[in-house]
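Quick one: sequence plus adenosine-5'-triphosphate SMILES, need structure tokens.
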Amino acid sequence: MSFSEEPVVRVSNASIFQEDHTVLSEIDFTIDKGEFVYLIGRTGSGKSSLLKTLYADLPLRLGHAEVVGYNVSNIKSKEVPFLRRKIGIIFQDFELFYDRSVAENLTFVMKATGWKDPAKMKNRIAEVLMRVGLGAISAKMPHQLSGGEQQRVVIARAMINEPQILFADEPTGNLDPDVSDGILKLFEEINNSGTSVLMATHNHKFIEKFPHRVLKCEKGRVLDSSKEKFELSGWY
Ligand SMILES: Nc1ncnc2c1ncn2[C@@H]1O[C@H](COP(=O)(O)OP(=O)(O)OP(=O)(O)O)[C@@H](O)[C@H]1O
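Reply:
Sure thing.
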């Protein structure tokens, strides 16, 4: 069996806790290479907790989860940077360094993930900025960019190391509807070139415009539209 046939994410019989409170239990799903999956559910239903577990920010205390070949159930802290190199993480708050230029923001991540050659770094920065629909903006400071442009820089940063999957937690939460649509289209394009996407969103219009498989956090469980029917409305 070739490695590429392995799911990018495999969660089995997992429970997620915040302190002593069970947020989600009996979680079972896989995400294949190239899949686009929405993660929906009411505020506080556990979307962020699930994503944090998958990118090893919240320890998985019960059950099993494998992400891009890493067993996050018992991942050691020194292995986490290696996992993070194979995934991209995008938040609602852009989390850029506002005292550094776009290029410096991207270079920071590149150096932290082992890039050394300045010429190669410069080329890669131009490449990823082009990929997210931004031109020659490397020298600009984040505050000189619109919210949508800043989020594109964040997506470029997440794409630097050609991740197998993007985990996006409400990536358009701070953006106007038109700008949000552009960001969703960008995720679609990135997904069409083979990168899996798991996106938590409260924007039900996305699911209508670009239908994909849906995972829904509800009453402490994760429902999966590829296995059962459920209401797509009433959660936002
Ligand atoms: N750091 C934390 N410490 C303790 N409890 C937490 C923490 N973070 C989240 N929780 C609790 O865990 C539950 C799930 O929260 P989570 O943030 O995962 O939900 P969510 O579906 O992402 O919500 P939202 O849509 O508002 O972002 C909630 O009851 C929340 O209060």
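Helices lie at 47-54, 80-85, 102-112, 118-131, 147-159, 177-192, 204-209. The chain has one domain: 9-224.
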